[in-house]
Fold this protein.
Amino acid sequence: MMSDCKFIEYTVARHGDTEVKVEGKTWKEAIKKIEEAIMLRKDLVITIIGEPGMGKTTILNAVKKDLGDKQGNYIIYIDLVNSPNLSSAFWHYLKTTIIEKIRVDSYNVLSSNKREIGYTGFAKLGKEFNNWLRHMCEKRRWDEKLGYAQRLYCMTYDESVYPKDVVGVILFIKDLLNLGIVGLLIDEVKPVDGQLSEIHKLINECKVPIALAMTNDVMNEIKDRALKRRLSEFTIELKLNQKDREEILRGYCPDFSEELLEVKEVMGAETVSKLIDIAREVINTSYKHCEGEYDIKGCVKMKIKSAFDIGDINEASKRLEQEVREGLLELKDLYGIDYVHKKGKKIEEMGVIVDIYFRKGKVEYIGDIKLSNKDTIEESSVANMKRLENYFKNGDYDVVKFIITNVSNVDITNFKVIRVDNRSLKKILEGDREERNALIKRVVEELGLLERKSQ
C-alpha cells in the first residue's frame, strides 16, 4: 500500500519552478490577491515578507504558472539574487523567455491595422508586409496611436529601441500595457542601491501591479522612507503558526497528518520547507521500517509517533559522547584545538567526572551530555554539573563549561547550553558524519573558539 502523501522533491523553491504545490490559507490567499491585482490591472504594490524557506518564491512561481501562459497576459518574473540592479535582470528575462510571444502578438496588432500604420498604395506595391515592417523599424517612425505595437515588434530585431536602463524598462512596460495584461513579479530583493532606486522609480512611474519578495532583514534595512511607504501599502508577512502547520500537513499528507502533528520535531519546524522536509523524512523512514507488514498503514502510524525516539538514554548518551570526542579529534587542526581527552575526564579538585574535555591555548573546555526521551530532564540528572557552576580556573587555565542536551529545561549558571533536536541526534547516532561535524561546528562557534587565538 502506498501513501497519499504528495511531497515535492525540492522544498526550497527555485525561481521558475513549474512543479508548484501550495498549501496553507495564508499562502493561497497571497496568490489570490496577486492574481486579482494583475487581472484587474490594479496599480498596487504587494510586498511578501518572510525568512528563507517560508514560501515566498513558491507564491511567485504559482502566480507565474497560473497566469503566464494565458493569451494576452505578460507576466514578467525576475530574480534579483545575483543582479546589481533591476534593469539588467529585467532585460535578461525578456530576452530568454517571452520576447517571441511579444513579437507575435504585436505583429498581429500591426497586421490588423495595416492601413493605419501606412501600409497602403505604393507601400503595398513596393514591399511585402514583413519586409515593409523591417524597413519601418529602421526608420523608427512611430504611429501616434499604434506606436506601442511598432516599438514592441521592432525591439525583437533591434534591442536599442528601448534604453537598457530603468527608463527603458518603464517605457517598455507602458507600451506592453497597451498590448495586454501585465504583471511584474520581483524575487530576492536585496538592500542595494542599484536595486532599490530602480524599484522606487518603477513603482512611481508605472501604473502596473507589482509583487515583490524579500526577507524581514531586507525590509528593515531600507532607509528611504518614501520607498518604504510604497512597499508597505499591502504587505503579506509569512509566519508559521500551529494552524498553518496543520493545514499544510493535511494538504500534503492527509493519510498521516494527525500522527505527524504529534511529532515534536515536525511541529517545532520554523519554516515551511523545514516542516515538509521533516515530515517527508518521517514518512519515508516509517515506510522502510514497515516493509513486509500486513497492515502497512497501521504500522506506519505507529512508527511515526516514535520516529525520532533515540532509544535507551544511557546508550544514546554514551554513543553521542563518543561521537563528539571523535569529531573533535578529527577536526582539531581545523579549529586550532591543542588537545582532546579520549575519554571522560575527572576534575580532581571538584570530584566531578565530565564527558568531554579539550584545550585550546590557555582555555580548558569541559562538557557533559544530558539526553532524555521526555520533554524535560530531572534536576537530579544535572546535579554533578551544578557543582561546577563557580569553577572558572584550573591553575593557569581559564575554564569554559557546556552541556549538550535535547531538552529545553536545562539551565545551569555559567554553562553554555547547546540544544540539539532528536532528529539531528538520531542521524548522528546512526553514523551520519555530516550531521556530527555540523554539531562540532556549532559547539566550536557557540563556545567562541574561533574568537580565541591560541597563546
Notes: The chain is about 45% helix and 15% strand. The chain has a mean pLDDT of 91. The radius of gyration is 30 Å.
